[in-house]
Every structure is written in structure tokens, then in C-alpha cells.
């Protein structure tokens, strides 16, 4: 594997060279702004913990930058881009699609840096480093590696599992491993990681046992489908395991849902009571790669941004609008109704709606944002989630492509819905009281009436779509479904209308309802053709050209 070999040769040679200086307590609570540290640094508990800080940010940068929403939302059909990113919007991602390559690269950087951290801590940790901190730091690295492999196996299927970069440098026979064996490896890893992490974070934003047990709930729920086989029946043992871990996190972690959904994305929201694991970005001028650049590409215009705001063609799809309760289909081309689900306004911007947390530049001054209505058929619903505004809105901590707020990787709400889905399992519905209770914890927070009687798998799927829209989650829900019911996954995707639409408020500002109409000038390419030949991402062309072993049949992975 020449190319992968070259990647890790570079990682080994370049990234461990920077020695961090004196570390204040505040500095240790957030990722250092420098590169991964050299071997002489691992002499105290604080130094060892600082050495793993960049695993929470910089190694994920290429994925978070644009690939997360391109794969997680554009490809899934929850959002679209009218003029850019069309490969993922139209479900014809190729080996040359930029976000395909950047995601692959980022995940293998996570793997490589995690491996280096494990090896360096094991080899260089000095006698003053406590056994507890050494175990914790290694567990952090193993967690990140396992999570990276979860993304890799779900996007590309069979992928090479690499536990030791140094071994790879002298081994040119490494090839892809089967999805089942990758899932077995990362699940086994996460079980051990859960034992090695503390129940309370050692620093703000650091992983805990509940981060790992939450991932186990996620992993087992998906892995139950991986082992479904020809019958399409998910593995009941794994469904039970998902239920077990989800309930442990719900009842034992001390985490809690925020009372208002919209507060999840109001500055400052980092490391709140609902977050089980977030990427820890910092406003970091001069230290590219440790900041959150994503808002630059999602904010609809420069009037609410900091020299960027390049998301003027990005917004909700016609399909995702229909997933929100309170939006009803009136005819083939018109949707009309008063928005009930509070998650819609917190995820997408509706014309006339007010967002007082964001400052908008207007001729002659500024005002609190009222999302514009231009009165033409190119007015649509823009993206709100993760848009926190100008520097003045975030304590001065924002500049072009440089934002400090974190990215959720797992929230407690997921555990409530995972429990409910695990209970439904291979059935169409359930009347289990606890499953209904947990589902309604999420559902009613959005201002909706509780579901009573029975709860269906389709209701849970729909709830996940609207709860996590624009958090890079929807695609992986479809992949999980595809493992055990590919026909249904294709049917959902191929029934979607991914197109542009015109949004008209009944009055401006402070509307009480909106009318949504498909735009006359953007009616083409609203549908896709998802099938067994294009569902998984193709391995990036640059990798295939330099790593011929990636084209060989996959083999089961045996952990070293």
C-alpha cells in the first residue's frame, strides 16, 4: 500500500516534532494550537494529557471543514446546494469528488495520529506519569481510532485496519478488511475503552466512560444490521446490547437534555449538559486546523458572517421539510402550514423569522437578524444550525473561516432514540412504555404532542432525521438501514425530492405561516437513483492509483 505507507511515513516524520511550552490550566482544557508533540514531552500527567488534545480537533479538520455536511446531509438528502457540491447532492459522488478524498484522508490521519499517541505514551511516558493518566490518554487515542473506523467502514465498506504505523512502513501486503471484521474490531476496542475512561472528565470536554458507552450503543445498533444476513433480521443480541448501553448512559451519566432544543446551538453552548462528545475547536488565529471553519461555508451571506458567508446556495430540501410535523402537503407543488416543530427554526432559517442572537449588517448600520424575504422565486430556507454570527455575537472570538464553537459528535438525545429503536428491533412497532417514554423525551422537547399507543420504526427514523439534521448524521442512519434492508434504504432515497423551492411568509416580519412552492426554474435533477452500485463511496482515485492492494478482495481482520 504505497500511498497509505507514504501518508504514515509523513505523519511519523513531521507531526511529532513540536515541543509544547509551559501549559496553563486553561490551555490544558482546550486543544493546544501546535502540532503533535515529540518524544521528550511525556514526562508529567499534564504533558501526557496535552499530548492527546489535538486528537479532539486538528486531526478531524479535513472532515469537519466541508466533508461532514457533504456526506452526512447532502448525500442523505436532508440539505442541498443549488450550484456547488453537486456530486454529493445528486448522489453521484466519484473517486475525484473533493470531499470524498478529504474525508478519507482525515479519517486515516485520525487513525495514524491515534496510533502514534498510543505508541509514544507507551514508550516515552516518564516515571512521574501516573498509571491512571497513562491509561486514560491511551483510551482517548483508541476511542478516536475506533470512531474513525466507524466512519470509514460505513462510507467505503471494506477498509484496511491499521493499528501500528511503524509496522505498516515495512509491510507492503496490507489490504482491506471485511466490514464484519472491522465492526468486530471497533466494538471490542470500545468495550475496553469504556473500562479505561473515568465517569467524570479529567478536563472540560474530555472523553468519559459515558462517551464510550454511548458509542457502544451506537455501534451495537448498527452492528445488529451488519450481522442480519440474508434474512434481513437484525442480530437480537446486539440490539439488546444497544438497549443496555443506551439506558446506562441515560440513567447513570448525569447528562441531561437541554430544556430548549434551540439552546443547543446558541453561543456559548460548548460542553453543555447534553453533549456526550464534541470536537473541541478554538478561535485560533495563526494556528490553522484547530478552529471550526464550517460556518464559513454554511452561513447564507456576508451580512451575518466575518468576511465569509458562502452558503447562499445551501438550504433545506423539499423532502426534509416534509419530515417536520406541522408542515403538511397541500398539493403536488405546494406545502403550506404553521410550523409546529421547534427544531425547524433552529436548523433552517425561514423568511421573516427573527434570530436575535445574530447581528446582521444592513445599509447604514446593523440590526438583529431577520432572515430576508426578497420576494422572488430564489428565496429559500437557509441553514441556521452552527451559525453563531459575527465576532460581536461571540465575545470577539470569530474571524473569516475561524470560529471557536464545538461540533457535536454525540448527544444524549441519540441515546433516547437508540433505546427506542433497539426495543422495536425486528418488529414494525412497539407499545413498550419505556421506549415510548424515552422517544417522547426528545419528541416533546420540540413542542410536539407525545406519541401514544404504539411507536413505529418509521417514526423513530423520521425523528432522527429532524433531530439531527445538519449534524452530519442522516447519511449514517441510511447506511445502518442499508445493512439489513437495502431495498428500503434505496426506496427512501429515490423517493426524495432534493430540489430547490420558494418560501413565502404570510407577512414580514414575524410571520405565522409560510407557503413553499417548487421553483419553476429549478425543476431538473430533483431525483436521484440510489442502487447497489453507487450506495457506498468509491475509494478516492488518488488512493487507488498508488495503492493497488486496495482493489484486492477483502480479508477478515485479526487484531495483532
UniProtKB/TrEMBL annotation:
A Pfam family assignment: SusD_RagB
Signal peptide residues on this chain, from the entry's feature table: 1-21
Keywords: Cell outer membrane, Membrane, Signal
Localisation per UniProt entry: Cell outer membrane
Entries under InterPro entries matching the protein: SusD-like_N (IPR033985), SusD_RagB_dom (IPR012944), TPR-like_helical_dom_sf (IPR011990)
Ranges of residues in domain SusD-like N-terminal: 98-221
PROSITE patterns named in the record: PROKAR_LIPOPROTEIN (PS51257)
GO cellular component, one term: cell outer membrane
Domain RagB/SusD: 292-552
SUPFAM superfamilies in the cross-refs: TPR-like (SSF48452)
Organism superkingdom: Bacteria
Family, per entry: Belongs to the SusD family.
Protein name: Starch-binding associating with outer membrane
Species of origin: Dyadobacter soli
Amino acid at each position: 500500500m504505497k500511498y497509505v505507507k507514504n501518508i504514515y511515513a509523513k505523519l511519523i516524520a513531521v507531526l511529532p516534532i513540536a515541543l509544547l511550552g509551559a501549559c496553563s490550566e486553561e490551555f490544558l482544557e482546550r486543544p493546544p494550537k501546535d502540532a503533535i508533540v515529540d518524544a521528550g514531552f511525556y514526562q508529567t500527567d499534564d504533558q501526557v494529557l496535552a499530548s492527546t488534545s489535538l486528537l479532539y480537533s486538528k486531526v478531524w479538520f479535513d472532515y469537519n471543514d466541508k466533508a461532514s455536511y457533504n456526506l452526512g446531509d447532502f448525500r442523505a438528502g436532508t440539505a442541498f446546494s443549488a450550484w456547488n457540491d453537486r456530486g454529493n447532492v445528486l448522489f453521484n459522488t466519484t473517486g475525484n469528488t473533493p470531499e470524498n478524498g478529504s474525508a478519507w484522508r482525515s479519517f486515516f490521519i485520525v487513525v495514524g495520529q491515534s496510533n502514534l499517541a498510543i505508541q509514544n505514551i507507551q514508550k516515552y511516558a516518564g516515571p512521574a506519569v501516573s498509571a491512571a493518566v497513562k491509561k486514560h490518554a491511551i483510551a482517548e487515542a483508541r476511542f478516536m481510532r475506533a470512531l474513525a473506523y466507524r466512519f470509514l467502514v460505513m462510507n467505503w465498506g471494506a477498509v484496511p485496519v491499521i493499528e501500528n504505523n511503524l509496522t505498516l512502513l515495512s509491510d507492503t501486503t496490507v489490504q482491506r478488511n471485511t466490514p464484519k471484521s472491522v465492526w468486530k474490531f471497533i466494538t471490542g476496542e470500545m468495550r475496553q475503552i469504556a473500562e479505561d475512561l473515568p465517569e467524570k472528565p479529567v478536563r472540560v470536554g474530555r472523553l468519559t466512560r459515558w462517551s464510550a458507552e454511548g458509542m457502544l450503543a451506537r455501534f451495537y445498533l448498527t452492528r445488529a444490521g451488519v450481522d442480519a444476513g440474508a434474512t434481513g433480521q437484525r442480530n437480537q443480541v446486539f440490539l439488546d446490547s444497544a438497549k443496555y448501553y443506551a439506558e446506562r448512559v441515560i440513567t447513570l451519566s448525569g447528562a441531561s437534555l437541554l430544556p430548549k432544543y434551540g439552546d443547543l446551538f446558541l453561543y456559548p453552548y460548548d460542553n453543555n449538559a447534553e453533549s456526550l462528545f464534541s470536537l473541541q475547536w478554538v478561535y485560533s488565529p495563526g494556528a490553522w486546523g484547530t478552529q471550526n471553519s464550517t460556518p464559513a461555508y454554511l452561513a447564507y451571506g456576508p451580512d451575518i458572517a466575518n468576511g465569509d458567508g458562502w452558503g447562499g446556495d445551501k438550504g433545506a430540501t423539499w423532502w426534509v421539510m416534509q419530515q417536520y410535523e406541522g408542515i403538511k402537503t397541500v398539493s403536488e407543488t405546494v406545502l403550506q402550514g404553521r410550523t409546529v416543530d421547534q427544531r425547524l427554526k433552529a436548523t433552517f432559517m425561514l423568511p421573516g423569522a427573527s434570530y436575535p442572537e445574530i447581528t446582521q449588517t444592513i445599509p447604514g448600520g446593523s440590526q438583529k437578524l431577520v432572515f430576508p424575504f426578497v420576494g422572488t422565486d430564489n428565496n429559500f430556507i437557509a441553514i441556521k444550525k452552527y451559525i453563531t454570527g459575527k465576532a460581536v455575537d461571540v465575545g470577539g472570538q470569530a474571524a473569516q473561516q475561524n470560529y471557536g464553537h464545538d461540533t457535536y459528535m454525540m448527544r444524549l438525545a441519540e441515546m433516547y432514540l437508540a433505546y427506542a429503536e433497539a426495543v422495536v428491533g425486528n418488529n414494525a412497532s412497539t407499545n413498550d412504555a419505556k421506549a415510548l417514554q424515552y422517544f417522547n423525551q426528545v419528541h416533546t422537547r420540540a413542542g410536539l404532542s407525545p406519541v401514544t399507543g404504539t411507536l413505529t420504526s418509521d417514526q423513530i427514523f423520521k425523528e432522527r432525521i429532524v433531530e439531527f439534521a445538519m449534524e452530519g448524521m442522516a447519511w449514517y442512519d441510511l447506511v445502518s438501514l442499508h445493512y439489513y434492508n437495502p431495498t428500503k434504504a434505496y426506496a427512501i432515497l429515490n423517493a426524495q425530492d432534493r430540489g430547490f423551492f420558494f418560501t413565502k411568509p404570510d407577512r414580514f416580519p414575524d410571520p405565522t405561516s409560510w407557503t413553499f412552492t417548487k421553483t419553476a426554474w429549478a425543476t431538473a435533477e430533483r431525483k436521484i437513483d440510489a442502487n447497489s452500485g453507487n450506495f457506498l463511496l468509491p475509494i478516492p482515485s488518488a488512493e487507488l492509483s498508488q495503492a493497488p492492494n486496495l482493489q484486492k478482495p477483502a480479508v477478515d481482520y485479526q487484531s495483532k
